[in-house]
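re: ur msg from earlier - yeah i can do the adenosine monophosphate complex, just paste it... oh wait u already did. ok heres what im feeding in:
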Amino acid sequence: MNAPDRPARNTLRLDELPIRNSFAELPPAFYTRLQPTPLPDPYLVCGSAAAAGLIDLDPAEFSSREFVETFSGNRALPGSTPIAAVYSGHQFGVWAGQLGDGRAILLGEVEAPGTPPGTLELQLKGAGMTPYSRMGDGRAVLRSSIREFLCSEAMAALGIPTSRALCVTGSDQRVMREMPETSAVATRMAPSFVRFGSFEHWFYNGRKDELKILADHVIDRCYPELRDDKNPYQSLLSEVTRRTAHMIAQWQAVGFMHGVMNTDNMSILGLTLDYGPFGFMEAFDAQHICNHTDQQGRYAYSMQPQIAHWNCYALGQALLPLIGAVEDAQAALEIYQPEYKAKLNALLQAKLGLQTSEPEDSSLFDAMFSIMQASHVDFPQFFRKLGDLRLDDATADAPLRDLFIDRAAFDTWAVQYRSRLKRENSQDAPRRLAMHRVNPKYVLRNYLAQVAIDKAQEKDFSEVQRLLQVLERPYDEQPENERYAALPPDWAAHLEVSCSS
Ligand code: AMP
Ligand code: MG
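and the outut:
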């Protein structure tokens, strides 16, 4: 669900959006109908014209009062049927029972012609309490809403499957977190917000009829090509497993860490979903934990591939009553490892500018990660500068080499890398171009988000919008925005992000 091939027409007024809610056509056990809780005196914090383009919405609408009121939950979008969905899930490896949309309200889906399956659901996050709020207040804070907004749009621009973000609205209404903060509502878009945990919910409640209704709903809307397969539920599990493996390979290749890979945060479409304490790898440490409440490091960078596989097993368990034989579920799950490895390998090959594949490449990659680890090299800068390497001029390596504390280790690896490039007659100029197309110069470093958030908390939203613009072109040289590619300042070393804010 990334940028459509077709140019966006961006012509629709807000009230012209053709909206319906097919999830609300499922039996009532799947959701609760309710209205968002009004947000006092809301204002627009930021909007994504690219996201608006996906649903042909005219971004000029962002500045209308109706827009702000609608996406704060204060005004009904004509044709919408607001609901909160029920789901369950495993949190940190433990069955957590019923969770559900505790602060998200689904308005319905809108046509999105260039985006399979042709519709995008609109969901308000932070729109007030629901029957699934448990101990929560149903709200989201400005800080986390801006982070979700920027990261969704940044991931889409990187070409990584993700939910999208249309806008954030804010209010001076205070909510209590570790300290008082102001509330905000983020409007998200995805073809479906169904999670692995949506299936687990019906499985653990022993409700096979509902399980089947949900699986049929997802297949009919999002995987119609699987409908006529011999065992469409097994096909669904294989396809979700495959997409999840590919998504995780893309996360690893760009250094993205989700932070809370609970099964209720895993999209049935293999999209990056529910941005919370996420982070992008900067000083490389494979054991890095971006969520400071994850003391065991269950969701550390190096753990993500195996955790995602574990999550696919949880989905497989839930789908088993529909699939039938354990061996069939097992067969679907077994594709995870080969799919993940093949995808990661292809991505690493491209990141290193290799056009061919050799059996020894894995040792080249391993050696690279081990010198990056030893020197805690900045992840985005390393790969970006690697593209500037010249085959016959090691003096040009200085900016790259200077990233390493252990320069000798880099030199040793560079000899291996150069000889590998020479074996395939690699040419500097085209390799540089190709590498810069896959190694982003600009990623959402924590401190960049924090600077934009600090200003936004003072009601200056310009930096959020500016940062969005930079992140929308992550692979381009943007000489005027060079500072957004810089290493984090010292104060950023202590930034901490935790769950659910
Ligand atoms: P998360 O860790 O953000 O994916 O959230 C896990 C569960 O807690 C989901 O069911 C959320 O809807 C719920 N939740 C998180 N924050 C809040 C909140 N402030 N109010 C109500 N429910 C929340
Ligand atoms: Mg969640």
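cool cool. The pocket of magnesium ion (ligand 2) is lined by residues 264-265, 274 (CB under 6 Å). ping me if u need the other ligands too
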